[in-house]
Amino acid sequence: xxxxxxxxxxxxxxxxxxxxxxxxxxxxxxxxxxxxxxxxxxxxxxxxxxxxxxxxxxxxxxxxxxxxxxxxxxxxxxxxxxxxxxxxxxxxxxxxxxxxxxxxxxxxxxxxxxxxxxxxxxxxxxxxxxxxxxxxxxxxxxxxxxxxxxxxxxxxxxxxxxxxxxxxxxxxxxxxxxxxxxxxxxxxxxxxxxxxxxxxxxxxxxxxxxxxxxxxxxxxxxxxxxxxxxxxxxxxxxxxxxxxxxxxxxxxxxxxxxxxxxxxxxxxxxxxxxxxxxxxxxxxxxxxxxxxxxxxxxxxxxxxxxxxxxxxxxxxxxxxxxxxxxxxxxxxxxxxxxxxxxxxxxxxxxxxxxxxxxxxxxxx
Length: 364
Known about the structure:
There is one protein chain. The protein is an alpha+beta fold. 53% of the residues lie in helices and 14% in strands. A hairpin with a 2-residue loop joins strand 9 and strand 10. Helix 9 packs antiparallel against helix 11 (331-341). 49% of the residues are buried.
């Protein structure tokens, strides 16, 4: 990918606004809070019908894939808009895992047949790298002996929904492995809408796609960049719903939102969310345009996104008072997703350290 040095465009185009409206309408019809909570209590945390509507119905699984390779030929900007809406709904679908992270890894390997399958949404792909791995950090690999893969990988997000796993091996290759040939053991996840699992490989045959190092780096960078848009979506929902509730809730015969102390807290949160929007849009735009500053933009976005998303969800929980503490109210879903996202693709601290290296401001 060629790099360019251009001014970032943080605004939404008409097409992106229309895409947002379409995705939000779909989620309003098919992803209500009660349904998401019910899924977290079941053995099937993912919603296959919603995934089918998003991928096959709207073609959103192939946004990052060029038209010549079976996709929509869009950019990271459009994918970011989709993730904002999925974050607002805490949608239990493997979009970030499959349509962004796995797709980017496969695109780096130029595996056209698998790329087309991921773009159609018929196949769900998952990169078998721990969810907590930051771009540029070391990642676990499995052994390759006599052409077969052996080993165990932990913390793999959405592995329970995968049809194909992209497994890095010690020989430096990235291998496509049929999910039915591995052992996927679900683990207790804080965020039940994005479950993690341990993947065991005991003499499994895989198809070498290409070199693991550049593919994994590219995939994790895209995952970290667009995760900020998901965090933006959940922070916006937290702020909007809290303001709405405080306008309706009354104490001493006046709306709770009229109390000055709460106004100050909401104003501070609004400023944080606005700044998060700028950082998230900048990261998505940098990837979309191939900016030379893409690594810096991603590090800035993730260094800022996690604390804001967690703060927004915590404020929503506290300011909803007693009702916010109930299982039936969806705010706990947002707090759990925000907390889990704060560890995904590197912590805020890890990204601050990476940023310091990138701009040559190392700690003494």
